[in-house]
Design a protein that fits this description.
This protein is about 55% helix and about 15% strand. By secondary structure, the chain is an alpha+beta fold. A hairpin with a 2-residue loop joins β3 (about 145-155) and β4. α11 runs parallel beside α12 and α12 (about 380-395) runs antiparallel to α13.
Length: about 500
């Protein structure tokens, strides 16, 4: 039994895609930190050097107050400092001491000595703004900035020290940092892609084995058993298939096997196999390592630039959404499991509407009519929230050009009716009977699980679903849920 190419491809693509997203964010964070670090280190060293040169120059001038300029020019300590300054710092461009009129008394470029040298922009112009602006300054046309410290003797100012830095020199240091970081990130990305592909192959192989088991049962090989690996949903499904095989084998020995019953039973298990396949397609759950890498990136970048922070927030939200969906599907794969309790249904509807309004697509208007919804209702709020969220998402996707989605509730004879109505493209009549089937979907890249979840949730609440839709006139899905008047003694 071969697994459909689309499932294997989608598993691999989703896992590799998430690995690429983490790698791109890592590169962006590393580049931002490198730019910020290069600028800040260069500025700090320039300012420290300027203070040191000013201290030495002031000491020399104070030692000879009659002719401070000559004392500065002849000071050996200052000359030694100038000689070591350029060799000790890769981003320092020049260093000089100037008199009150701007003439160079001593300078690392001897051709400028005794000449007037114009001032350059201060270091504040380099540090001002966000990391994107700093990156453009470093990678753009060559420029020079300087730190200036005034000099004084006998409480009178007679000159200043200037320390210049070059964006060209800073660019060279930045490129060396980025090159080292890119090598490490590239190696990590290749490893992540290989792990993702291996996990996709491993998961698809497990699903393929289960489909093979079902085919063996259809062919009458009731003694065939699947290997149960781990304690996840696939292991639970494998155990269920083995239990089915044991029952069928026992009935075959007793001569009570009904081919029709076998077809129905294996069809149901096959449906669950498609559900698990869709689950793997939707979530790419094995990439839990992405959350760990995200945590590392956030710890290393405590104050990221706004654009990088936005990417990190998107990735964090998507990972949390995947975790919530996994938790919901784990409950969905266990038939009949429901954690019922008394809760505020009106508040739940308001929460679903509020979350839908927070979506980035401003073309969609969300209207809520929950005044008739009971504030005390018996059911599973988590499952109902998931079902309503799926319906709201489908409604919004049915209106690519914008429109209104109405979430409403009203009383019926034996319970409450909750409806989600859109003004979208509608559902063709010939496929309306299939939209709640597992793995049936009209969306490119979809799995058909969303509406299957809705149907399962309503079945667990002993309710029913009504669909009203016409092409180009919109769709209304109504969930009719009976009201419980008493609390059961035990709730699983």
């Amino acid at each position: 039994m071969k697994l459909p190419i689309s499932l294997r491809a989608s598993l691999s693509a989703s896992m590799v895609g998430l690995a690429l997203l983490v790698a791109l964010i890592a590169i962006a964070v590393h580049a931002g930190l490198a730019v910020k670090g290069t600028v800040q280190q260069s500025v700090d060293r320039a300012r420290a050097l300027a203070q040191q040169a000013a201290l030495v120059a002031s000491s020399a001038a104070n030692a000879s107050p009659v002719n401070p300029n000559a004392a500065i020019q002849g000071d050996r300590g200052l000359a030694a400092l100038f000689e070591s300054a350029l060799a000790g710092d890769p981003t320092i461009y020049d260093l000089g001491v100037f008199d009150a009129d701007g003439f160079a008394l001593i300078h690392t470029d001897r051709q400028k000595v005794a000449f007037r040298v114009d001032r350059r922009p201060g270091l504040d112009a380099l540090t001002r703004g966000d990391v994107l602006r700093q990156g453009l300054l470093l990678l753009g046309p060559a420029g020079a900035y300087e730190e200036r410290v005034p000099l004084g003797a006998d409480q009178q100012r007679f000159g200043e020290v200037r320390v210049g830095v070059s964006t060209t020199l800073m660019r060279e240091q930045l490129v060396s940092w980025l090159r080292a970081g890119l090598w490490v990130t590239g190696a990590a990305l290749m490893l992540a892609v290989l792990v993702a592909l291996a996990l996709a192959q491993f998961l698809s192989q497990r699903v393929r084995n289960m489909m093979t088991g079902l085919e063996r049962f259809r062919e009458g090989e009731f003694g065939y058993r699947l290997a149960v690996e781990g304690q996840d949903e696939l292991a639970l499904l494998a155990s269920s298939i083995n239990a089915l095989g044991e029952r069928l084998e026992a009935r075959a020995r007793a001569g009570h096997v009904d081919p029709t019953e076998l077809l129905v039973a294996t069809g149901q298990i096959s449906t669950w196999a498609r559900v698990v396949s869709g689950l793997a397609h939707e979530l790419a759950d094995p990439l839990n390592a992405a959350a760990l890498h995200l945590g590392q990136l956030k710890r290393k970048s405590k104050h990221p630039p706004p654009e990088t922070a936005r990417h990190l927030k998107v990735l964090e939200d998507e990972l949390k959404r995947l975790e919530q969906i996994v938790a919901g599907f784990r409950r969905f794969t266990v038939l009949g499991e429901m954690r019922a309790q008394w809760f505020d249904l009106r508040g739940l509807l308001e929460e679903v509407a509020r979350r839908a309004r927070e979506a980035p697509d401003r073309r969609i208007e969300i209207k809520l009519d929950a005044t008739l919804a009971p504030t005390r209702f018996w059911g599973d709020p988590a499952l109902l929230r998931q079902a309503l969220s799926n319906l709201m998402s489908n409604a919004e996707q049915a209106m690519p050009g914008g429109g209104r989605v109405t979430l409403a509730a009203h009383a019926i004879d034996d319970g409450v009716a909750i409806s989600v109505t859109d003004e979208g493209i509608g559902i063709p009549e010939e496929i309306q009977s299939r939209i709640f089937d597992h793995s049936f979907t009209t969306k490119l890249g979809g799995s058909g699980i969303g509406l299957a979840v809705v149907q399962q949730v309503i079945k667990l609440h002993d309710g029913r679903i009504r669909l009203r839709s016409r092409p180009e006139e919109g769709t209304q899905v109504t969930l009719e849920i009976p009201v419980k008047s008493t609390v059961p003694l035990m709730v699983r």
